[in-house]
């Protein structure tokens, strides 16, 4: 089995495309990183991957945008994950990907470098092909504009802090919000009641046939009123109407309320995903 390092998002996408397209929902994070890196290189100034070949085909291919974690794809040959772990020379802080490939790679990397593994968080990956309209909810959706930037920054920061259970890189969040406000395949929508924004839904990170929905955020004092459900449903329908065959999103597996909400509007669980950190003994 041969491993080749590939520099650049476009070059990696070209080489790893057979693995990526084998399961768009499972690999939507990698697709999103690659599309963002190509459209907004300032967000990911460095992108590289490692591609394992055997019998003339690609059998495994992790991706990294330093200083972030490595993202693993589902291999066609599970033994490729150990071979790739042996070939990667980066000092990896952690790994993210779907189960079980994320665990297989993490075990291999930890054993090679005498590290322990800590689970940062676990998420469900959901896909939607048809929206099930939720119950009628007061208010209406509108696209976010540049004038909403201060609110978007505050809410995206609050979401990152709450969802990731740690501090956020505010400078990078600002660049990400600005990139989405620039339009294209990404953006934000707000749910308003009597002219007041009460909920936020973002979208971006397109795959060949789909697109990721998120973040989804409602301030704590406004939760439980159906705003996020209504907005997520309408944003998802808008994206389908624009020609996307699927919408994807991540949910916190420790939050059964959000998982139930998304299921009621048509999202179906595809797989589970984990972010694991490597810790020195």
General form: globular
Q: What are the secondary-structure elements, in order, as H or E?
A: EHHEEEEHEHEEHHEEEHEHE
Structural class by SSE content: alpha+beta
The strand count comes to 13
Separation of termini? 31 Å
Arithmetic mean pLDDT: 93
CATH topology of the largest domain: Aminopeptidase
Q: For the record, what CATH class of the largest domain applies? A: Alpha Beta
Give me the CATH architecture of the largest domain, please: 3-Layer(aba) Sandwich
* Cα-based radius of gyration, to the nearest Å: 19 Å
Can you offer a commentary on this structure?
With 281 residues, the protein is of the alpha+beta class. It has two domains: 2-123 and 276-280, Aminopeptidase; 131-265, Gcn5-related N-acetyltransferase (GNAT) (Aminopeptidase, 3-Layer(aba) Sandwich). The chain contains eight helices and 13 strands. The chain has helices at 9-22, 28-39, 79-87, 101-113, 149-164, 170-181, 227-241, 256-264; strands spanning 2-7, 48-54, 57-60, 63-64, 70-72, 94-98, 115-128, 140-143, 187-193, 196-204, 210-217, 246-252, 268-280. Strands 1, 2, 3, 4, 5, 6, 7, 8, 9, 10, 11, 12 and 13 form a 13-stranded mixed β-sheet that branches. A hairpin with a 5-residue loop joins strand 10 (196-204) and strand 11. The chain is globular. The two termini are 31 Å apart. The model has no long low-confidence stretch (mean pLDDT 93).
């Amino acid at each position: 089995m041969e491993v080749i390092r590939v520099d650049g998002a476009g070059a990696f996408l070209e080489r790893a495309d057979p693995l990526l397209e084998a399961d768009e929902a499972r690999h939507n994070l990698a697709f999103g990183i690659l599309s963002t890196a190509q459209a907004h290189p300032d967000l990911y100034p460095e992108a590289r991957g490692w591609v394992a070949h055997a019998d003339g085909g690609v059998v495994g291919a992790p991706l990294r945008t330093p200083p972030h974690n490595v993202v693993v794809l589902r291999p066609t040959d599970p033994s490729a994950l150990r071979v790739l772990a042996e070939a990667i020379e980066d000092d990896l802080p952690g790994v993210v990907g779907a189960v079980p490939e994320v665990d297989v790679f993490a075990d291999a990397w930890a054993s090679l470098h005498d590290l322990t593994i800590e689970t940062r968080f676990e998420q469900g990956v959901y896909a939607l092909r048809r929206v099930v309209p939720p119950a009628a909810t007061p208010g209406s959706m509108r696209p976010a504009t540049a004038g909403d930037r201060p609110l978007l920054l505050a809410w995206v920061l609050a979401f990152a802090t709450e969802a990731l259970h740690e501090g956020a890189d505010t400078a990078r969040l600002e660049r990400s919000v600005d990139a989405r406000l620039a339009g294209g395949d990404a953006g934000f929508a707000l749910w308003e009641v009597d002219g007041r924004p009460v909920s936020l839904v973002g979208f971006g990170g397109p795959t060949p046939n789909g697109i990721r929905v998120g973040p989804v955020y409602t301030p704590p004092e406004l939760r439980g009123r159906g705003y996020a459900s209504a907005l997520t449903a309408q944003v998802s329908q808008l994206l389908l109407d624009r020609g996307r065959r699927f919408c994807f999103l991540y949910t916190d597996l420790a939050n059964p309320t959000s998982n139930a909400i998304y299921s009621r509007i048509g999202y179906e669980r595809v797989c589970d995903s984990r972010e694991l950190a490597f810790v020195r003994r």
